[in-house]
Amino acid sequence: MSNGLEHSSWVISDDHRVDIFVGRGTRRLLPRLIGSLGTGYSLIALVADSGLPESFRRDAEEALKGTGRLVVRIIAGGEQAKSLDTVKELWEWLLGSGADRDSLLIAYGGGAVSDAAGFAAATYMRGIDWAVIPTTLLSMVDASVGGKTAVNLGAKNIIGAFHHPRLVVIDTEHLETLRERDYIAGLAEVVKHALLEGKWFLEWLLSHREEILARRHGVLARMIRLSLDTKMKIVSRDYRERRGDRALLNLGHTVAHALEKATSYSLRHGEAVAIGLVVESYLAHRVTGLPLDEVEEIKNALASLGLPTRPPKGLEPGEVIGLVRLDKKRKGDKILLPLLEGIGKPVLVELDLGEAVAGLREAWREASHGD
């Protein structure tokens, strides 16, 4: 360039492999699964959720003793885990344990524990490898992959980093301990992934409905892997949420997040997502031409798995839909919504905020009456 100004430009790619193993009793296979990564770790640091049944944690600890030096830290789960205080405690524990850049941190528990522990791994010595063993269906089919780690600071997930786990180990035996309502709620994210992937996935879910509801391990393992593969196909195209593709994973969530806030989080996340999928399907019928018979397919699939399909009675639609104005996908007087043109055909649609709110209010009415 002129005036003696030198310039060069480089595109840096982040080539990162995520290995996912799903099956019954996988916690007992940890040495073999960690060994498959081909990295000799100097230290294994296990961060376990205090709500985890002791027998599960002991199985993992016994297995991990064969991998080399092991240290264990137990932390309380839930939103209180997602704080900078928790992360600071983990940093200090890692440092005091002699963890170096060749260490592996394993987060064993619910989504809040993996969020905090994953962020600690992302930032300790500028980033160390980490693995996750999710223990709820919701975290197994959704939160365990995608690379989002974060803690709260005044609001949810304000401080965080993209840091993919090297290893995801899903043990379907954890699902035996889940309460029925929590288990069913987790299925909403599976249905969401099926709607993004295609009719074949939705049909597979319905054809295995009885086995899924009975928590048969073989079918659960396949269901979870298919769900994660759907998510990872999208994530791999938009690792850091720059292109917009990852916004497709928010299908049903625009209404769901507003519904959760309006009900003071008395609904399970999956229950709100199920209702959001129905309301947003009615909106899609008007905006993208989603056929009404496919709207019915979506409702029937959710209902057959025990999920709600109508907004709770007594809620004013204006009160809920007005909260859409706070959605993170809003940019000025526009909002970007993931909607379906058909099952397996998601698109991102930019609408005027007023148009989106009016359309969602009408869609809420249709979903409430089932017509």
Question: What would your notes on this structure say?
Answer:
Helices cover about 45% and strands about 15% of the residues. It is an alpha/beta fold and about 375 residues long. It has 2 domains: about 20-180, Rossmann fold; about 180-370, Dehydroquinate synthase-like, alpha domain. The strands form 3 sheets. A 6-stranded parallel β-sheet has the order 1-8-5-4-2-3, sandwiched between helices. β4, α4 and β5 (about 130-135) form a beta-alpha-beta unit. The radius of gyration is 22 Å and the shape is globular. The protein starts with 18 loop residues before the first strand and ends with a helix. The mean pLDDT is about 90.
Summarize the structure.
With 371 residues, the protein is α/β, with parallel strands linked by helices.
The CATH superfamily title of the largest domain? Dehydroquinate synthase-like - alpha domain
CATH architecture descriptor text of the largest domain? Up-down Bundle
- SSE order, as H and E? EHEHEHEHEHEEEHHHHHHHHEEEH
Query: Reading side by side through the largest sheet, how are the strands ordered?
Result: 1-8-5-4-2-3
Record field, number of beta strands: 11
- Strand content is 15-25%
Distance between the termini: 65 Å
Classify the fold: give the CATH topology of the largest domain.
Dehydroquinate synthase-like, alpha domain
Helix segment tally: 14
Q: What's the number of structural domains? A: 2
- Identify the CATH class of the largest domain: Mainly Alpha
What gross morphology would you assign?
Answer: globular
User: What is the makeup of the main sheet?
Assistant: 6 strands, parallel
* Mean pLDDT rating: 92
Helix/strand class: alpha/beta
Low-confidence stretches: none
Radius of gyration: 22 Å
Q: Helical residue percent?
A: 40-55%
